[in-house]
Amino acid sequence: MPDLDAALSDRLARGCASLGVGTQEEQGQLLTYLALMVKWNRAYNLTAVREPRQMVTRHLLDSLAVAAHLSGQRLLDVGTGGGLPGVPLSILFPEREFHLLDSNGKKTRFLFQVKTALGLDNMTVHQARVEAFDQSPFDTVLSRAFASLADMVSGCRHLLAPGGRFLAMKGAFPEAEIAAVEDCCQIQAVHPLAVPGLGEQRHLVVMTLRD
């Protein structure tokens, strides 16, 4: 449907311009990823969001909104599901190494297809439960709607390199969750995120482990 394709491209372009990210080539890759998600979602139930225009806002732009706060060379997206935010960030930062972890076989099969279709050599897909996942440590451990901050820290602390950072994407300011981890974590920042086209709160919690 050319009209829909044009509308999606325009929505993504305007959102990327607002965030200050994304070349025309990268936006093309993001739209290819979106098309794959729409196709596979019918059978694999990757996301409850099924309307493509909403997917641009709630998945692509929501993921890209954290781009300015990334650091490190080796990053882990834990509980990645259909690849959010890991796939959009892999497209945006080809010089960085992204590892996408999920225990769901259907979702990781989809991610292997995305990796192949988009030629994302900087993206590695892992199927495992986080507690059993054993890899050399990561500079950044990132999550989007994965778990509470306490569960994220307890499940992933063995995966964080010394001096590394947890980045947890949240909706409303998670005051109670922050209080629950203050004994074991140093809260470096809580950044409000402005997702173009989304009238809901988004926050990014940045944490390091206490010595």
Automatic annotation (TrEMBL):
It catalyses: guanosine(527) in 16S rRNA + S-adenosyl-L-methionine = N(7)-methylguanosine(527) in 16S rRNA + S-adenosyl-L-homocysteine. Keywords: Cytoplasm, Methyltransferase, rRNA processing, S-adenosyl-L-methionine, Transferase. InterPro entries: rRNA_ssu_MeTfrase_G, SAM-dependent_MTases_sf. One of its GO terms (cellular component) is cytosol. It holds the Pfam family GidB. Belongs to the methyltransferase superfamily. RNA methyltransferase RsmG family. This is Ribosomal RNA small subunit methyltransferase G. It comes from Seongchinamella sediminis.
